[in-house]
Structures are given as structure tokens and as C-alpha cells.
């Protein structure tokens, strides 16, 4: 009995980081939305679908994490990048398995032109959610800003495979030996 309780505690500690539950699994809804993006008839339809993706990604695991996310985004929207970063730092500390915390913190770093700081957060967001188109396009833009155009083009292609309607599609250039 003691061994079972101990094993349960170990399992629970991996599912909950500092009290934060695992983020909701939206895989079926995401699968459907990504499929719809592939057959979207134009920018307007794709924008509606993309907004639905963002609604899912922006659903934090619990109320405290949602509050941190919302506060950070409000601070970022009002150009208070220091306070935004503090909120996203708190969110990542509380929910280290929630991709959007890293993605939002990377966005603040990008806006502050701290590209070297943004890249590890984008990589972590993509480890947690490999189909996060926002993190993929953000990584491509970050790499472009760092002068790593070839790497940026490769990541941009990954984003466009998921969402061929991204506004960043106009940044697509041929890779060496490739025609567009």
C-alpha cells in the first residue's frame, strides 16, 4: 500500500508542476482546424480558423495560470514589456509544461529586440507543442532578425505546411537549388 501511494505521488508530481495541472488536450479540435486550413478558400476563411487555433492555445491549464497569461498579454498590449515578462516568467515557473507561456515570453523578447533570448523560449514552446504555428512563425521571424535567413526559411516552411495562409508566406524565398 505504501509503495502504491508513493508511486501515485511520483506520477502526480510529473503531471502537476508547482500546482499547475496539465494543459487541456485539444488534439481532436486542432486536427480538425489544421485540416480546414489546408482547404480554406481564402485569407478571410483562414483567418477565422487561425483565430480558433489561438483560442485553444490561449486556454491555460487553470484559473491562476489563465490570470497570469491574461495579465501578461494586457501588459504587452500596453507596451509594458517589463511587467509582461514578469507575468510570463511567473506563468512559466508555475506551468512549465504549458507551451503558450514560453511563446508569449518569446514574443515579448522579440518586441524588445532580444532575439537571442526569444529563441530558447520558442524552442521550448515547440518541444511542448510542435504544431504551434505562432511559435513556428515567431521562430522564423526571430531567425531572420538574427541574420539566419536559411534557418528562418526552413522554419517558415514548417509553419506554412500547417497553415499555408500565414501572412508571413510573403517572406518565403527559394532555398539554394529550389524554385518557388
UniProtKB/TrEMBL annotation:
Keyword Repeat listed: yes
Signal peptide positions (record): 1-17
Source species, domain of life: Bacteria
Pfam short name (any one): TPR_2
SUPFAM superfamilies: TPR-like
Keywords annotated in UniProt: Repeat, Signal, TPR repeat
PROSITE patterns per record: TPR
TPR repeats by residue range: 99-132
PANTHER family with a match to the protein in the record: TETRATRICOPEPTIDE REPEAT PROTEIN 6 (PTHR44858), UDP-N-ACETYLGLUCOSAMINE--PEPTIDE N-ACETYLGLUCOSAMINYLTRANSFERASE SPINDLY-RELATED (PTHR44858:SF1)
Protein name (record): Tetratricopeptide repeat protein
